[in-house]
């Protein structure tokens, strides 16, 4: 029928767009992880910034991979999600990787702020001195907290599906969506809290660094020479403002995803999904061009690929 043909065409177009974004994002994050791993093996040393970027690249690569598999199965073989424990397993793994991605990237913004901003408060000075020792614990805490949330989401969805199975076997089909919403509400609340926490961390880092830049500029107005600290402030500010813009879009899409989660697929929900798939790739691309080592390696790689293509 015509409706079935339209649905098939829509699914094919959606999968093509999602696949293009996913594989691009996976390539970008795999590039970050591989370059940092090679540098780690060569120099046997790893600074805090590189540790955060490596964990972030790995989290985003696997998040995009798992999410793409989920989208593919949802379109070509949705029956597999009726098999235990596929729905709760995918939701749990996606949640773990997504929250790891968000919190590790928030840690990166906090790291830039503490490392570059200049404040005389004793607590800030203490953090600046100890930040290299704190970073591994921040990363470990982010991953462990994301793991706890993933396990919690698995148990909540498992309980919701079990409750709905019992209700439908008794013939109460009209209660299915109501019961599901009641059980899934804690997941929505937890997801919204997690999104808001990471967004506030990025906003706070951007505002603190902006304030530090303004104070430093006022002090250096009489100095006509080039100041290294000023350049570091400006460069970090550009990066964090870029993060802020991308995070604002991602935060809005994440909240809208919670709004449309209980509704049927529609063009608005698909548009939100497209923006969410673009976030890991776009943000990682900004990170590459904010890092001289990664940018230089990327340009060299692209030039080699271009030369090989031209030779053919």
From TrEMBL:
<dbReference type="GO" id="GO:0004930">
    <property type="term" value="F:G protein-coupled receptor activity"/>
</dbReference>
<dbReference type="InterPro" id="IPR007960">
    <property type="entry name" value="TAS2R"/>
</dbReference>
<feature type="transmembrane region" description="Helical">
    <location>
        <begin position="240"/>
        <end position="262"/>
    </location>
</feature>
<comment type="similarity">
    <text>Belongs to the G-protein coupled receptor T2R family.</text>
</comment>
<feature type="transmembrane region" description="Helical">
    <location>
        <begin position="184"/>
        <end position="211"/>
    </location>
</feature>
<keyword id="KW-0807">Transducer</keyword>
<protein>
    <recommendedName>
        <fullName>Taste receptor type 2</fullName>
    </recommendedName>
</protein>
<keyword id="KW-0716">Sensory transduction</keyword>
<dbReference type="Pfam" id="PF05296">
    <property type="entry name" value="TAS2R"/>
</dbReference>
<keyword id="KW-1133">Transmembrane helix</keyword>
<keyword id="KW-0919">Taste</keyword>
<feature type="transmembrane region" description="Helical">
    <location>
        <begin position="134"/>
        <end position="157"/>
    </location>
</feature>
<dbReference type="GO" id="GO:0033038">
    <property type="term" value="F:bitter taste receptor activity"/>
</dbReference>
<dbReference type="GO" id="GO:0016020">
    <property type="term" value="C:membrane"/>
</dbReference>
<keyword id="KW-0297">G-protein coupled receptor</keyword>
<feature type="transmembrane region" description="Helical">
    <location>
        <begin position="53"/>
        <end position="77"/>
    </location>
</feature>
<feature type="transmembrane region" description="Helical">
    <location>
        <begin position="12"/>
        <end position="41"/>
    </location>
</feature>
<feature type="transmembrane region" description="Helical">
    <location>
        <begin position="89"/>
        <end position="114"/>
    </location>
</feature>
<feature type="transmembrane region" description="Helical">
    <location>
        <begin position="268"/>
        <end position="290"/>
    </location>
</feature>
<keyword id="KW-0675">Receptor</keyword>
<keyword id="KW-0812">Transmembrane</keyword>
<keyword id="KW-0472">Membrane</keyword>
């Amino acid at each position: 029928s015509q409706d079935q043909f339209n649905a098939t065409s829509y699914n094919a177009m959606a999968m093509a767009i999602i696949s293009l974004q996913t594989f691009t994002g996976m390539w970008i994050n795999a590039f970050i992880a591989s370059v940092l791993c090679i540098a780690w093996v060569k120099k046997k040393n790893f600074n805090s910034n590189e540790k955060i970027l490596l964990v972030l690249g790995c989290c985003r690569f696997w998040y995009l991979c798992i999410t793409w598999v989920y989208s593919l199965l949802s379109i070509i073989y949705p029956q597999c999600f009726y098999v235990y424990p596929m729905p709760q397993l995918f939701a749990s793994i996606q949640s773990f990787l997504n929250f790891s991605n968000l919190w590790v990237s928030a840690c990166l913004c906090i790291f830039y702020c503490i490392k570059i901003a200049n404040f005389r408060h004793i607590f800030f000075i203490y953090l600046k001195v100890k930040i290299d020792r704190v970073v591994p614990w921040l990363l470990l805490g982010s991953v462990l907290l994301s793991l706890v949330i993933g396990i919690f989401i698995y148990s909540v969805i498992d309980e919701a599906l079990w409750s709905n199975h019992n209700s439908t076997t008794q013939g109460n089909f009209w209660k299915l969506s109501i019961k599901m919403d009641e059980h899934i509400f804690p997941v929505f609340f937890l997801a919204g809290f997690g999104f808001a926490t990471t967004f506030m961390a990025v906003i706070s880092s951007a505002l603190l660094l902006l304030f530090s830049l303004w104070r430093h500029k006022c002090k250096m107005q009489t100095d006509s020479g080039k100041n290294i600290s000023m350049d570091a402030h400006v460069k970090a500010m550009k990066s964090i403002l870029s993060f802020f813009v991308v995070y604002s879009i991602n935060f809005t899409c994440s909240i809208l995803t919670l709004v449309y989660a209980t509704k049927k697929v529609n063009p608005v929900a698909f548009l939100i999904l497209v923006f969410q798939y673009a976030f890991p790739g776009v943000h990682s691309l900004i990170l590459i061009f904010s890092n001289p080592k990664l940018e230089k390696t990327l340009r060299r790689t692209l030039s080699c690929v271009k030369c090989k293509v031209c030779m053919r």
